[in-house]
Amino acid sequence: xxxxxxxxxxxxxxxxxxxxxxxxxxxAGFYKALSKSNIKHILxxxxxxxxxxxxxxxxxxxxxxxxxxxxxPGALNLMMGVATxxxxxxxxxxxxxxxxxxxxxxxxIQDIDLPSIFKPITFKNYSPKNGTAAILNxxxxxxxxxxxxxxxxxxxxxxxxxxxxxxxxxxxxxNPNYDYSNLDLxxxxxxxxxxxxxxxxxxxxxxxxxxxxxxxxxxxKIPTLHTYHANGILDGEDSLNFxxxxxxxxEASTTLFKNSDLVLVLGATLNERTLNLDKEEVDxxxxxxxxxNDKITHxxxxxxxxxxxxxxxxxxxxxxxxxxxxxxxxxxxxxxLTNNFKNKExxxxxxxxxxxxxxxxxxxxxxxxxxVHRDSLIVNDAGSHTSWVLIFHNxxxxxxxxxxxxxxxxxxxxxxxxxxxxxxTGKEVITVMGDGDIQMNxxxxxxxxxxxxxxxxxxxxxxxxxxxxxxxECFYNMEPYAxxxxxxDFIAIxxxxxxxAEKVSTYDGLVSAIKKAKLLKKPYLxxxxxxxxxxxxxx
Length: 539
Prior knowledge:
With 539 residues, the chain is an alpha/beta fold. It has three domains: 3-162, 3-Layer(aba) Sandwich (Rossmann fold), CATH 3.40.50; 183-343, 3-Layer(aba) Sandwich (Rossmann fold), CATH 3.40.50; 362-529, 3-Layer(aba) Sandwich (Rossmann fold). The chain has a six-stranded parallel beta sheet, sandwiched between helices. Strands 9-8-7-10-11-12 form a six-stranded parallel beta sheet, with helices on both faces. β1, α2 and β2 form a beta-alpha-beta unit.
């Protein structure tokens, strides 16, 4: 057995079902071993797609995703998706091949310093020098991704190592160095709180503590906010759900944060978006948080992001299991929730506007899509439509919006939908994108078609990079420049990939197309002609 076979066997034994990638010369040994395994390889048409698909697979499956590439250009193409996972702390195993050790550093074909390039966008990076190290590195990476899932891990494998047959095996155990020493202080704070608020982050899902958290919230009737990524943990119609924290949050959510005497932050990062800081406050974020320091109790597996007076570096489920027998939240003010219900309101209302003769208002189109997809997995791309998606998304507990919060690359929608659909067989998956977005990764319509993934692709077409045009006008006082798009025939392209498609330009036409797509349960593309509208820019 060579190293490639041993590595694949390790992944197989860990229950890895899918690997997203593109083959190449330097990684061919790994692919030979993969071809004989029970792991299904999802052939993407670009390595960027492989990384993003693996990243969203991770987000929506509860397990870490795996993406793979060959050396040089293949590995570099992965970087956008890996960086996206890094910015949002998504666990992802990134395997790259490299030129043989004898050729490294000699400027030979495809030789480039991959470990150094990937280091800033991964939280751990392995460069094994022999077969034994490669096996032990992968074992440790798997242990960390399972027990401390806080971002992508990179394993770089020179071609000669993959064929090495000199292997020494041993067991690897990773024990996260968590610290619960502030647990008693946290319990005292929870017991004495009269006006508590909870902020939920994606860490709640990752720790598999969703049910425990929901029971806690409902038992004590605690007002709750969530980050972008934690939507759907509470139903959007739940009276205790006050929506997004910070940027794009309602006036009621801002009032909640300011008037509370305890903010329990579970698996979230208190960054400038969660706190809705302006530029001056971002420059002094620690000083800003210091004003609220006494009331923040923060639980997270990533020690570096902890804020507030009481910091718990640990797993959310473990934290909640340790406090669940305590009579916490026994002092809540009866008027706290009642008064906040009175303040609960949307920050931005739908602009009820008359659609143009041959185009829809984008906000009307987005609302029509989201109104009938409350139970769906919705993968959002980047661009002006994103504001409307965030404003109108109101998921049930079955539904969820997946989007990049930290990097926000264009072209996220198609690969993200692929990862979500493969992770959730039988689940309705849609992606909402602009006409600029789709052309970033349009080639992977082929992957959707090949696997007959039941994804509905909504393309809002205004023949323009609309949000950039708006920034040019509003903040640079300039005429639109380099933003107009001469688009291809998206319907013809979609059909060329074997995916049925149609174009709509009216509200009734869109509603009819949505109903048709839901019944088909197969790949379908709907191009929507929308007008060039300004969006409500964040304050």
